[in-house]
Amino acid sequence: MTLTYSSYLSLPKLLELQRPRSQPPEHDEMLFIVIHQVFELWFKLLLHETDKVGRDFTGNDLYGAIATWKRMRTILKTLVGQLDILETMTPMSFASFRDRLDTASGFQSFQFREVEFALGYKRAQVTGAIPDHEGQRLAAERRLREPSVVDHFYTFLAQRGLHAPVALRTKDVTLPTQASEDLQDELFRAYRDQPELVILFELMTDFDEGLQEWRYRHIKLVERTIGAKKGTGGSPGVEFLKQSLWKPLFPDLWAIRHRM
Ligand code: HEM
Q: pLDDT value at position 1?
């Protein structure tokens, strides 16, 4: 059979996958499903790109890393903007089908955890919320045990003549990224002496800001849609989400800015 647009993209399969549960149908449930599926596709692509940027770093490929961070930043900005569409749904409309979600929640998104872990925001305890089937929890646990993009970043910096402290380069990879004053001194020097690295550092800062933007916008979406109600995933809701707000991925890139 000749390849067609539809067969290449597996469209019949893809368009089969939106299955609202409300009976009688609630108009906005389709929007809710489509938005979440689209986000999961973006998460999939982000993981594809974090794998690439890890290879760029270990391979000392500065231009590859710059191109990849630029793409990742653009995906993130696009993703955040898409929350506007979901905010056209009123709290009453969401309440009309919310109980069909049962305990389903973004809290169980194994790909989102993979994205966080790949970027060095590691929290072993949150993997417990991921259902233990179809290898989903295992996928997140595997990422937890793998070096993050930040671990690869240290390797890259060493290849560029920056002294990345041994304590950072040999740290337990299942732990979250730690700020380091020694590394900050090195990064500050690079800001002055290696302009090609500055382009990379600024893109990484853009991305970091983008992820915090996503967290903020998601919290506001949750607040305006369910207020102080508990999450379907069983967390206290907004208060739980606020724990990760303002936590940078790359604390050292933020810590030096007042010196410039
Ligand atoms: C009406 C819209 C939404 C509401 C009311 C909502 C609500 C919540 C709540 C209350 C939580 C905390 C965990 C829990 O107890 O359930 C949560 C977590 C989460 N949600 Fe949403 N959400 C919405 C839309 C979205 C969208 C569009 C996505 C995109 C995939 C998403 C992804 C996530 C993720 C990844 C988490 C875990 C966040 C973390 O642990 O930091 N949510 N959501």
A: 84
Which of 24-33, 143-152, 233-242 shows the lowest mean pLDDT across its residues? 233-242
Question: Per the structure block, which two tokens stand in for 63?
Answer: 């231009």
Residue nearest to atom 6 of ligand 1 (CA): 222
Cβ 156 under 6 angstroms from ligand 1: no
- The two tokens of residue 174 are 């299942």
Give the 3-state secondary structure of 192-221. HHCHHHHHHHHHHHHHHHHHHHHHHHHHHH
Contact call for residues 111 and 44 (beta carbons, < 8 A): yes
3-state helix, strand, coil in the chain (%, to 5): 65, 0, 35
- Is ligand 1 within 6 A of the CB of residue 233? yes
> pTM score, two decimals?
0.96
